[in-house]
């Protein structure tokens, strides 16, 4: 790995090679939902909680100060108003992200979708540009399409993750498969670090913490969780709790106590 990528990765992944990333690129997909109406306000709360990376689209990246957290600029987008929502298209270049000050960039690919071919072609092109400019690439790899009845099936998740690694990504974000044993098979078959997605809003914060703990036991390098963090009553405390699990190995019970601390 070249020096530029190594240096930039250190701003997102700590010395333990683990990371807590909070994606807030939802404004393009679903609009200004609860939690991300005031982007600087929520970013300040997350940074206070000790997150390692903030992921946003280029327009927000130009206007928000991410403090000590690494800045990841999302290159892909599509609104849920589109008749082909799974067809993510490139809306920002690697060069533009670098000009903004990005520490990394991200591309979204829905494996199995109607326009998978175009998304894979774009992923390969972006990976080449990232190598040329020395900037890390986080690939969001999700199995989604008519031939995929279960987006969390281990064999489907493993295939999607492996495609991202095969085409040049430095970090893969994908679905958690539901158990330590099944996700371990995904991790073992992917030669680059894996972080888990948060998915829909969880029923409880304990569920978020437990899933994170289990994923780490399976070998995950951390998480990239959005709504279950920025829509929490206290984004700062949940960030502290997740960071404690990821970077300090605390138990779910100990993390729950962090959530109960004075805010």
How would you sum up this structure in a few lines?
With 263 residues, the protein is α/β, with parallel strands linked by helices. The protein has helices spanning 3-12, 26-29, 39-48, 58-61, 94-100, 116-133, 154-166, 180-188, 205-217, 227-230, 235-248, 252-259, and strands at residues 19-23, 53-56, 70-74, 76-77, 89-90, 104-111, 137-143, 171-174, 194-197, 222-224.
General description of the model:
With 263 residues, the protein is an alpha/beta fold. The chain has a single domain, classed as TIM Barrel (Alpha-Beta Barrel). 43% of the residues lie in helices and 17% in strands. It has 12 helices and 10 strands. The chain has helices spanning 3-12, 26-29, 39-48, 58-61, 94-100, 116-133, 154-166, 180-188, 205-217, 227-230, 235-248, 252-259, and strands at residues 19-23, 53-56, 70-74, 76-77, 89-90, 104-111, 137-143, 171-174, 194-197, 222-224. Strands 1-2-3-6-7-8-9-10 form an 8-stranded parallel β-barrel, surrounded by 6 helices. A two-stranded antiparallel sheet has the order 4-5. Helix 3 packs parallel to helix 11, helix 7 (154-166) runs parallel beside helix 8 (180-188) and helix 9 runs parallel beside helix 11 (235-248). The longest helix is centred in the middle third of the chain and has 18 residues, at 116-133. The model has no long low-confidence stretch (mean pLDDT 96).
Which helices and strands, and how do they pair?
Blueprint: H1 3-12, E1 19-23, H2 26-29, H3 39-48, E2 53-56, H4 58-61, E3 70-74, E4 76-77, E5 89-90, H5 94-100, E6 104-111, H6 116-133, E7 137-143, H7 154-166, E8 171-174, H8 180-188, E9 194-197, H9 205-217, E10 222-224, H10 227-230, H11 235-248, H12 252-259
Parallel strand pairs: 1-2, 1-10, 2-3, 3-6, 6-7, 7-8, 8-9, 9-10
Antiparallel strand pairs: 4-5
Helix pairs in contact: 3-11, 7-8, 9-11, 11-12
């Amino acid at each position: 790995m070249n020096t530029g990528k190594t240096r930039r990765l250190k701003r997102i992944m700590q010395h333990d090679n683990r990371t807590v990333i909070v994606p807030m690129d939802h404004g393009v997909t679903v609009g200004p939902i609860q939690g991300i109406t005031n982007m600087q306000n929520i970013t300040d709360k997350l940074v206070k909680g000790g997150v390692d990376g903030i992921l946003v689209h280029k327009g927000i990246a130009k206007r928000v100060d991410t403090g000590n957290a690494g800045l990841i600029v999302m290159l892909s987008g599509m609104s849920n108003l589109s008749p082909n929502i799974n067809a993510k298209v490139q809306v920002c270049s690697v060069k533009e992200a670098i000009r903004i000050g990005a520490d990394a960039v991200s591309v979204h690919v829905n494996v199995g979708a109607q326009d998978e071919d175009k998304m894979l072609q774009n992923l390969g092109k972006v990976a080449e540009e990232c190598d040329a400019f020395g900037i890390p690439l986080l690939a969001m790899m999700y199995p989604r399409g008519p031939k995929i009845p279960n987006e969390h099936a281990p064999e489907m998740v493993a295939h999607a993750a492996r495609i991202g690694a095969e085409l040049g990504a430095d970090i893969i974000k994908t679905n958690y498969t539901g158990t330590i044993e099944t996700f371990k098979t995904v991790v073992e078959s992917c030669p680059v670090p894996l972080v888990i997605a948060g998915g829909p809003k969880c029923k409880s914060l304990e569920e978020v913490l437990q899933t994170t703990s289990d994923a780490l036991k399976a070998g995950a390098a951390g998480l990239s969780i959005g709504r279950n963090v920025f829509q929490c009553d206290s984004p700062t405390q949940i960030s502290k709790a997740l960071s404690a699990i990821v970077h300090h190995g605390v138990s779910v019970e100990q993390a729950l106590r962090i959530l109960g601390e004075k805010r």
